[in-house]
Specification:
- The chain is an alpha+beta fold.
- It contains 11 helices and 13 strands.
- Helices cover about 50% and strands about 20% of the residues.
- The strands form 5 sheets. Strands 7-6-8-9 form a 4-stranded antiparallel beta sheet.
- Helix 4 runs antiparallel to helix 9 and helix 8 runs antiparallel to helix 9.
């Protein structure tokens, strides 16, 4: 199994001081993805030949007592676990080697495992990414806390969507589309990620519950680093008095639930964005690759260590989702082949699998080229702004 550092990063920034934060974030996300494959493979009795962080020539490593080579390689854009019987890092079978194996060797090879075992080994990588994200988010809620700033509207901007919809200063937003709103940041996040979508706001106005429907306007906004984001804007503000922003630490069980919710939110918004791009309702310019991730890592490192871990959690969800796409070479492509095998009662032909892997390679390369092109264009736009 190999893990591709996918182009599902939706932010941007500068490169100064980005290398160490980038490698830190990347190492965490890739290590846990591959660890998922590794642990389930060992549990199923499969012999693991290599556990690599990165691709290309080995920089350093060691061999454990069960014969697995743990190494760090020269190109830090992913990683892979190579099983006994694999022809390469993408778990393409070595047919000649399989034909020469003894019964004992086939028993510990990946491709002689039943479909359920192979499927479990493959899906363990993305699941490990989701678990990592949940744990990081939960830790942040326990250590930093959850924002307790109420979703009170202190100012409605003239001529804004909010003014036309009927919002007033002093309104308290308590729900959006039927879901309870705990704080102003939560309301902002929902509004910003739902541009041009109709939202139903539950409002507490002087003790009376009313409902207002509004459609956030899509605008381009610059952040503190000069990056341009396409966001949904309602046109309201919250004026914070000194000490009014409170972060309340939560217990581990509550934090775990919040971590699950945060992970689900990131996954849902990522899939929604991809769906809107495919449908032509959203620009694909926000899709970024490793260059953009390096920029963002450096920017988040200037904020705080918790911000870097927060970025790692978001990227972990994105990489987990990307690797579940039904593209040959990725985990989802392997799962698709195993599904066909389970339905047919026998695997696809070697030729069909080889053609599938070639198509998958072309798609992945095209996606990387497109993401890198976006990164470069973003860099020049940032330099010119």
């Amino acid at each position: 199994m190999f893990d591709f550092l996918g182009p599902l990063n939706l932010w941007g920034g500068g490169f100064t001081g980005a290398l160490l934060p980038f490698l830190f974030v990347l190492t965490i996300v890739v290590f846990f993805h591959e660890l998922g494959h590794f642990l389930v493979a060992r549990w199923c009795g499969v012999r693991v030949l290599v556990f690599s962080l990165g691709f290309g020539p080995e920089l350093f490593g060691f061999t454990d007592r069960r014969g697995t080579r743990w190494k760090v390689s020269a190109v830090p854009l992913g990683g892979y676990v190579k099983f006994f019987g694999d022809d390469n890092a993408a778990s393409v079978p070595d047919q000649d080697a399989l034909a020469r194996m003894s019964a004992a060797e086939r028993k510990v090879s990946f491709f002689d495992q039943p479909v359920r075992n192979r499927s479990a080994i493959v899906v363990a990588g993305p699941i490990a990414n989701f678990i990592l994200a949940i744990v990081i988010f939960a830790a942040i809620f326990m250590v930093i806390g959850k924002s307790e700033t109420t979703a009170r509207i202190d100012e409605v901007l003239p001529g804004s969507i909010a003014e036309r919809a009927g919002f007033r200063a002093g309104d308290m937003v308590v729900a959006i589309n039927g879901g309870a709103i705990a704080n102003f940041s939560e309301m902002q996040r929902i509004v910003s990620t739902n541009a041009d979508e109709e939202l139903r706001f539950g409002i507490d106005r002087n003790g009376t519950r009313i409902e207002i429907t509004a459609r956030p306007e899509l605008r381009e906004e610059k952040d503190a680093f000069g990056n341009v984001h396409r966001l949904g804007i309602l046109g309201v503000r919250r004026s914070l008095a000194p000490g009014e922003t409170i972060f309340k630490k939560v217990d581990p069980l509550t934090a775990l639930g919040l971590g699950v919710g945060e992970t689900w939110f990131v996954a849902k918004q990522t899939l929604t964005y991809i769906g809107r791009v495919v449908a032509g309702r959203e620009s694909a310019e926000q899709i970024g690759g490793p260059l953009r991730i390096a920029q963002v890592s450096g920017q988040f490192a200037t904020i705080s260590l918790s911000a870097v871990f927060h970025l790692a959690a978001i990227l972990s969800v994105s990489i987990g989702l990307l690797n579940l796409f039904p593209i040959p070479l990725l985990d989802g492509g392997h799962l698709l082949f195993y599904l066909v095998e389970a339905v047919r009662g026998r695997p696809l032909s070697d030729y069909a699998q080889e053609m599938g892997f070639r198509v998958g390679l072309v798609l992945i390369l095209a996606l990387m080229i497109f993401a890198t092109r976006n990164d470069i264009m973003h860099f020049f736009r940032t330099m010119g702004s």
